[in-house]
Amino acid sequence: MAGILIIAHAPFASALRECVAHIYGGLPARIGVIDVKPDCDPVEVRAFARSEIDRLREGNGAIVLTDVFGATPANIAQSLAAEDVRVLAGVNLPMLVRAVCYRTTPLATLTEKILQGGSKGIQELDSTTPQNPCALATAAPGTADPASSASADRVTAKATT
């Protein structure tokens, strides 16, 4: 299982970790965060990031997710890139969810899944856009798709425990 390290402008990394804990009803194992503050010493943060990667890395390697390409957190993250450590910029919540869901797959496949999740998670919504089945499960009686209601209820129940 690949370890996951999020390096981002404070407090974004911690906020993403809290969101994934909310979604999964608890924090999945081997997820670390580094919130980079405006007054940080990049050399010190880089050293801490290396120790975090060593702690989180497993047989499948590690994924480092960072926010803005070219910014200090991304520059720190990029210094961690190695054969068994992939660094991806532009992190969003769909990317992190994919990272958690597919972390047992080979690192190359995991990287592809994360990037796909990030881009597929960015959509313009209007009143005609189909809703998520989980959201439909809480709609008025008779408006939800019966085929998706049972699975939506399971997801909703898990997310609220």
TrEMBL record:
Cellular component GO terms held in the UniProt record: cytoplasm; membrane
Classification via Gene3D superfamilies: Phosphotransferase system, mannose-type IIA component
Cell location: Cytoplasm
Disordered: annotated segments: 122-161
PTS EIIA type-4 domain: residues covered: 1-122
Highest rank taxon of the organism: Bacteria
Biological process, per Gene Ontology: phosphoenolpyruvate-dependent sugar phosphotransferase system
GO molecular function: kinase activity
Broad class of where this protein is predominantly found: cytoplasm
Pfam families: EIIA-man
Record key words, sorted: Cytoplasm, Kinase, Phosphotransferase system, Sugar transport, Transferase, Transport
Keyword Glycoprotein in annotation: no
Name of protein: PTS system fructose-specific transporter subunit IIA
The species this protein was found in: Caballeronia humi
